[in-house]
Write a structure and sequence with these properties.
The chain is mainly β. Helices cover 12% and strands 45% of the residues.
Length: 338
């Protein structure tokens, strides 16, 4: 056989093999896309075996994000400016970085268990909280979240576990999922507690008095993350003043017995801690068209004697957005025997 005839026979054989491989679906199983034109991902044919893998969360996925304001969903927040979003996998206990941002492609393996993780961080000087509870409520495929330091920089982030099982799989291209994120705008000018006058007219008989406190915001569509409340009574004699109850917006009335009580050389303090971090803090929100008065009524039991003039301070502590530093709003008044 001549050399050119030999090469021609080989070429015919390769073409035949290629056509058989296309017909049997071997090429797509080998990761070769016979219908791709200039690398176009949309023309990739998905084989039956790949569909089975995708239903278990295995394969390459096209991932999308959309992040809006919790109290104004028409306001879309800007990626890489207001927030940063990262896609991760977990192999055992290890976090494996995959991609950053919107309309990306990520590859999941069998070791990932069929789950994709989404991490949201807030850049410095951005006045937002990650509204993790709203994210959990509005994403049906999210199974859990963690508040962990993923990149070992000493700062914890919210990470959301996205179930990749059972999604709709197209016949070509890559299957896609969309993560819906929510940010709560931080009220950096939070008004705090209203200013109330002194409590007077207290006689020598044991009696309970109420101070009609409320919290107020500087503007609508904003919130704060309350982490602790405290009532400080400037006396060391507990028989004179006792905390009966305090209404914490979002929690309701808390009995005085639910507070931790400590004494110093000059005062008695009742403290109720909700959470010292963004995870578990009480996110108090002020939506549009809502009364800007969030009831924080204080109830105290008095047994005063002549001459008593006791200073009392009520303080709400909340976390500054992005930094998790503590901030407080308080008011003071005197309880006076008369």
């Amino acid at each position: 056989m001549k050399k050119n005839e030999k090469y021609g026979a080989i070429a015919v054989g390769l073409i035949a093999l290629f056509l058989i491989a296309m017909q049997m679906g071997w090429l797509t199983q080998w990761g070769v896309n016979p219908l791709s034109i200039n690398g176009s991902q949309s023309n990739r044919v998905i084989s039956d075996q790949q569909k089975e893998d995708y239903l278990q969360g295995i394969g390459r996925w096209n991932v999308f994000e959309t992040v809006v304001d919790s109290l104004d969903i028409a306001t879309v927040r800007t990626s890489a400016t207001n927030y940063k979003l990262y896609w991760y996998a977990r192999h055992g206990g290890d976090w494996m970085y995959l991609e950053t941002g919107n309309d990306k492609y990520v590859d999941l393996q069998a070791d990932d268990g069929g789950y994709l993780w989404i991490v949201i961080t807030i850049p410095s000087n951005q006045a937002f909280y990650v509204d993790y509870l709203e994210i959990m409520r509005k994403n049906s495929y999210i199974t859990q979240y963690q508040y962990v330091d993923i990149d070992n920089d000493g700062v914890k982030e919210f990470a959301f576990c996205y179930d990749m099982h059972g999604h709709q799989i197209p016949n070509s291209g890559y299957p896609g999922i969309t993560f819906k994120g929510f940010l709560l705008t931080y009220d950096a000018s939070f008004t705090g507690l209203c200013d109330l006058g002194n409590v007077t007219g207290i006689g020598g008989t044991t009696t309970t008095k109420f101070q009609a406190y409320y919290l107020a915001f500087s503007a609508a569509k904003q919130g704060i993350a309350v982490y602790k409340v405290e009532v400080k009574i400037t006396t060391t004699d507990e028989t004179k003043v006792r905390l009966k109850k305090l209404n914490v917006p979002g929690l309701g009335y808390l009995d005085g017995s639910q507070f931790a009580k400590t004494s110093t050389g000059s005062d008695i303090r009742y403290t109720y801690t909700i959470s010292n971090t963004f995870d578990g803090a009480l996110y108090l929100k002020h939506p549009s068209n809502a009364l800007n008065q969030y009831d924080a009524t204080l109830g105290l039991e008095f047994t005063l004697v002549s001459g008593d003039d006791i200073l009392i301070t009520v303080t709400f502590f909340y976390l500054k957005a992005q930094t998790e530093a503590g901030v407080s709003a308080s008011d003071t008044f005197y309880a006076q025997f008369s």
